[in-house]
Amino acid sequence: MSRVHRYRVTLAPLLEAASDDGEAAPALVFTHHNHDDLVQIAERVRQASGLDADSAAATAVGLKLLGGVMLSERDNPLFDGLRQPLREFIQTLKALSKRG
Length: 100
What we know:
Layout: E1 5-11, E2 28-34, H1 38-49, H2 53-72, H3 80-99
Antiparallel strand pairs: 1-2
Helix pairs in contact: 1-2, 1-3
């Protein structure tokens, strides 16, 4: 049985994103589980792609979150136009990782 990694994802606006009344906008918080270690994947993406750490993390986490939803919603036609291009992008990224 493979290990499941559990995450709490928090997207919190920076202070400069405060509203007109000076209040900070609320954070978006949700949980996610994945069979992959997203921290390790973000580091591999950074090493393979040449992206800076923030861009690599955003790319890795974004891909894994979207890919996970697409897998769980495989019958939802909303994702039909993304399936092949996303698959090709991930294959390209993995090929870069194998070269390094």
